[in-house]
């Protein structure tokens, strides 16, 4: 997002805590550095895995927020976001908030007591005083505004940055998938993603004759949940048909996407589903639940299959998809056409329009 905005002529600084970097880089704290062509400044997270309290970040915001025309805040329920909104209000700087799906009725029902405390301790004021609330889908906007009475939302989807790889066989060769079509899951392996339902539907399918097909569960998750999925596979003597390659990224991820026959995400709740849009951009059709907020648009585009999170429904969709190579290709081409409007240069222009409007 930041790179696309810079390419559109916006002067961008990404300010954040050092939480959740997971060794990806060793930041120089409180010093502006450049990472992947984006200026970034990091601040030490002092405590709270979710709250991410950082006194130094709050102090910097109070001193420097007036240097900017617009503040774009990504997330709601943590200290950094509340501190940014508070500093912006104090200095009279307009700010945009992207709630990342955390304000939908389903999301607010998770750890609801904690979120109610947050809501009354500053989040409500933060939301109502925002110059705009940034939703990534119209479904998210409608759900939040109807339940919370907010009325100043703007829908700008996330963009995708697909860089095709010439090594399309890398993933196949590494995991011995030669001559096997496969269904790909590219996600955190969590109960909320509907992975267990997909797994059992797939196992029923291969018992019924689709023995060449493979299911690739590419991601990580809580060890006990992943272990339960692996146990179910062993009990069905299907270890050759269901693969757990772990989290993949970079060229290997692109190789896995480009060579998949179908991407599946039958999630109980999914605000945008970036992997879904990435698959469509590669010409790969998708199988998703109605709770993925792009489901209605994807269904209208004819770019995949929508199935309720029930074994019979998912199995029926898998059967229809895996039975026809021609239909997979047809829906994949429609998906690629649909995904073209989600390229980052297109999306960046929408952001610039929003920023100019609220800054003016």
Number of helices: 15
Q: Kindly state the mean pLDDT as a whole number?
A: 92
Looking at the structure, what is the overall shape?
elongated
**Share in helix:** 40-55%
Structural class: alpha/beta
Largest sheet: 6 strands, parallel
Order of helices and strands: HEEEHEHEHHEHEHEHEHEHEHEHEHHH
Query: What's the oligomerization state?
Result: single chain
Q: Low-confidence parts, pLDDT < 50 over ≥5 residues?
A: none
Distance between the termini: 22 Å
The radius of gyration is 22 Å
Strand content: 5-15%
* Order of strands in the sheet with most strands: 10-9-8-11-12-13
Quick one: how many beta strands? 13
Provide tags for this entry:
360 residues, alpha/beta, six-stranded parallel beta sheet, four-stranded parallel beta sheet, 14% strand, elongated
How would you describe the overall organization of this protein?
It is a single chain. Helix 2 (55-64) packs parallel to helix 3 (79-91). A six-stranded parallel β-sheet has the order 10-9-8-11-12-13, sandwiched between helices. It is α/β, with parallel strands linked by helices and 360 residues long. The chain is built from 15 helices and 13 strands.
SSE layout:
Elements: H1 2-7, E1 14-17, E2 33-35, E3 38-43, H2 55-64, E4 71-74, H3 79-91, E5 95-98, H4 105-108, H5 112-128, E6 132-135, H6 138-148, E7 153-155, H7 170-174, E8 182-186, H8 195-207, E9 214-218, H9 223-235, E10 242-243, H10 250-259, E11 262-265, H11 274-281, E12 286-288, H12 295-301, E13 304-306, H13 311-322, H14 325-339, H15 344-359
Parallel strand pairs: 1-3, 4-5, 5-6, 6-7, 8-9, 8-11, 9-10, 11-12, 12-13
Antiparallel strand pairs: 2-3
